[in-house]
Structure formats: C-alpha cells, structure tokens
Here is the input.
Amino acid sequence: MTVTKSFQTQRLYIRAITVEDAPFILELMNTPLWIKFIGDRNVRTVKEAETYIKEKALIQLETYGYTNNVVIRKEDNAKLGTCGIYHREGKDIPDIGFAFLPDHHGKGYAFEAATELIQVAYQNYGLNELSGYTLEENAASRQLLERLGFKLKGIGKLPSSDDELLHYYRNLDV
Here is the structure.
C-alpha cells in the first residue's frame, strides 16, 4: 500500500484533511444538507472541528493510509467539499463518502473527485472493493453512487447509528 496524501484531476486538487481545515469543516458540517443527510455531529466551534479532525480523520490516515480529503478548485483554490474513504469499526469493507457546500452542488465536482479517489483506492491503497451508505431520501447521493458504478446491495447500518441506510457495493477491479 502506498500512502497518497494528495492527487488531482483536471479541475481539482484533492488532499488529505489537516487541522488547518477546521474553519472549512465547521462550515461544511453545519450546512442544512449535512445535518439532514449525514447527521448533526455537534461541532459548533473551530476548536471542536480541530478535535473532530484529529480524532476521526488523522488517526484513520495514520492507521490505514486513507481518510477524508478536502476538494479544492484549481482555478481559485476555493475549498468546495470533501470526498474520502472511511474505515468503520465493525465493517470489513471501507466506504466512500462525499459532501460539498451548497454553492458547489450540481457542477460535477463530487463525481470528478470520487472517480479519481476510486482509482487511487484501487491502485495505491490496495483496496479492491468499497461500500457506500446513504439515506433513501438522499436522491443526489444515490444517483452519484450509481453513476460511480455502485450497485444497491440492500439495507445496512453503520456501527455508530441506528439509522437504516441504503447499502451500495462496488468491486474496484471491474
């Protein structure tokens, strides 16, 4: 496995999240769609966002070599959202996730970032399969997972939640 902390596409820089991203993560995690579809993480200050990054993302990066990534537009260095691979306790297959600020929805950034991340996961992280989880009512995420080649497997739950989620699955070497 090769640890790849940054990569890029035609329009985007994609790099591992850092503590310096805390103000951006605070903004993203408190958008109405994040709270509705991902859940309120009770992160209300930059300091709480820093702690969240340290305890969730950076430990995972050290342990597995992959984590959440910040997606940055090349033309103006604007932080648009996040796209990452998550190893969840109690789950054998890591899952992909993405979230973008509302102004950047519908512009293809999530698809572009996730497509590249899937290639990096296969080529550099030694992964050959990924899962994806979303609420049934999150049509945009469902459509994106399907566009990325994920197939609906059924209903699943994440270890940290009682919510029933649609569980998608993708073999990366197909």
